[in-house]
Amino acid sequence: MDRPIYIRKLTTADAEIYKNISYGESLHRYVSFMEAKSISEAESIISFNTCLFSTMYGIFRASDNKLVGALITSWYEPDKEMTVHYFIGEYYRRKHYAYESLIVLSRLVKQKSPEVKTLVFEVRKTNKASIALQKALGSELVKENDKIYFYYLSV
């Protein structure tokens, strides 16, 4: 099945298009470490998340190659778990791009990093959209604290 999106690693050359979608109240509230207010800040975020333990992906709409969101994965080799943070730009929400991108990511992880068995999502209890997304993906609520749910998705 063709997906309406694809993901690819971001580079600092993508900083301007990244900055153009990385704003908004919910982004600020839930993943403020992904928020870029300038091109130089976007370059820093992309550079910081492009290292041995972390990868930053852009979520692109297949029909026109438009950046609609981003994913950050973090993995420490002895673990069989990979932590994932994501957002969809405000203008592009409610189009199933987050769901589709996480399906694509899980397939990519399975193919490129077969030792990783689980994707871990830390979701704030107030983030109803992300909670609904985790349920749609079939993620399992494994633990929680007073502010965060921890969902696990097998790959």
3D architecture notes:
By secondary structure, the chain is an alpha+beta fold. It has a single domain (5-154), classed as Gcn5-related N-acetyltransferase (GNAT) (Aminopeptidase, 3-Layer(aba) Sandwich). It is globular, with a radius of gyration of 15 Å. It has a seven-stranded mixed beta sheet with strand order 1-2-3-4-5-7-6, sandwiched between helices. The chain has helices at 15-21, 25-30, 39-48, 97-112, 128-137, and strands at 5-9, 54-61, 66-74, 81-88, 118-124, 140-144, 148-154.
Structural class: alpha+beta
Radius of gyration computed on alpha carbons: 15 Å
Under CATH, the homologous superfamily reads Gcn5-related N-acetyltransferase (GNAT)
Number of separate structural domains:
1
Alpha carbon gap, first and last residue: 18 Å
- Total helix count? 5
What is the strand and helix layout of this fold?
Elements (H helix, E strand, L loop, with lengths): L4 E5 L5 H7 L3 H6 L8 H10 L5 E8 L4 E9 L6 E8 L8 H16 L5 E7 L3 H10 L2 E5 L3 E7 L1
Parallel strand pairs: 4-5
Antiparallel strand pairs: 1-2, 2-3, 3-4, 5-7, 6-7
Helix pairs in contact: 1-3
Key words describing this protein structure:
Aminopeptidase, 155 residues, alpha+beta, 5 helices, seven-stranded mixed sheet
Question: What can be said about this structure in brief?
Answer:
The chain has 155 residues and is an alpha+beta fold.
